């Protein structure tokens, strides 16, 4: 059950608020679902020597997953570099 908090941000029964990242994610997923529902036709894909036909919705999901994987990987690399730099700073 959600209630309106003092700042008119939706809160859960235990007092936690829905964060900006969660709202952005939900909005992105909703836009992706709408796009998928509206684009059901097949397309021919050509990449190097591969040729195949996929529905646009499948291409969209695969592209979104690959993009999310790259985004996540870049975040992991950034955190690793920061930890490494902090360790080196502590040693000095």
| Global outline | flat
Instruction: Average the pLDDT over all residues and give the rounded result.
Output: 82
Low-confidence stretches: none
What's the helix-strand series? EEHEEH
Characterize the quaternary organization of these chains: single chain
What's the helix count?
2
Largest sheet: 2 strands, antiparallel
Into which percent range does the helicity of residues fall? 55-70%
Strand order of the largest sheet: 1-2
- Alpha-carbon distance between the two ends: 52 Å
User: Over all CA atoms, what is the radius of gyration?
Assistant: 21 Å
What structural category characterises the helix and strand content? alpha+beta
Characterization of this structure:
- This protein has 92 residues and is α+β, with helices and mostly antiparallel strands.
- Helix content is 60%, strand content 17%.
- The protein is built from 2 helices and 4 strands.
- The protein has helices at 20-38, 56-91; strands at residues 3-4, 10-11, 42-47, 50-55.
- α1 runs antiparallel to α2 (56-91).
- The longest helix is centred in the C-terminal third of the chain and has 36 residues, at 56-91.
- The chain starts with a strand and ends with a helix.
What's the short version?
With 92 residues, the protein is α+β, with helices and mostly antiparallel strands. Helix content is 60%, strand content 17%. The protein is flat and about 60 Å long.
């Amino acid at each position: 059950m959600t209630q309106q908090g003092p700042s008119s941000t939706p809160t859960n029964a235990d007092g936690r608020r829905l964060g900006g990242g969660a709202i952005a994610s939900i909005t992105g997923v909703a836009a992706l679902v709408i796009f998928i529902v509206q684009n059901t036709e097949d397309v021919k894909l050509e990449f190097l020597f591969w040729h195949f036909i996929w529905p646009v919705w499948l291409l969209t999901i695969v592209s979104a997953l690959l993009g999310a994987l790259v985004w996540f990987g870049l975040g992991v690399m950034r955190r690793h570099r920061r930890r490494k730099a902090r360790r080196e700073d502590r040693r000095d």
